[in-house]
Design brief:
single chain; 149 residues; mainly alpha; elongated
Length: 149
Amino acid sequence: MTEATGLRNQTDSKLDDDLWLNEHLFEIREKIVARANELLLDADYELTKAAALSEAAKEYAPGKRFPGEHQHSWRASILSQLSAVTLISALLAIVFGCIAFGISIAAEEGEPVPDVSGYIDLVKIFAGAVVGSTGAAAVASHTRGKVKT
């Protein structure tokens, strides 16, 4: 008896989803038809009805699956954005930071701390390179995503 109730609830849930989808598609259909009429009235476009509907449909449903077919883990997506310049710059920033830190703590008590500002400047430069190369990779990835449409 509980199995029958569970099956009925699943069926009711599926019907509710279908009703929502039908309502949603009806709204999208109205928007597509309205946009197609705008394209037909626009003097810059010389389109047939079918071509106008097709162009309007592409604006509302470009045909890309969401999420994409290949779902990667967040680690894989982050690692795919890292370039060799980013990794080398990050490594050098860490190395020079450690050198500056090591020099500053190696000074014996009572002695003046050696000047490590040159090393700190190198850390800043390489940290800036990490930010710049990561930003460039993100922009390139975003641009590649737009070109594939």
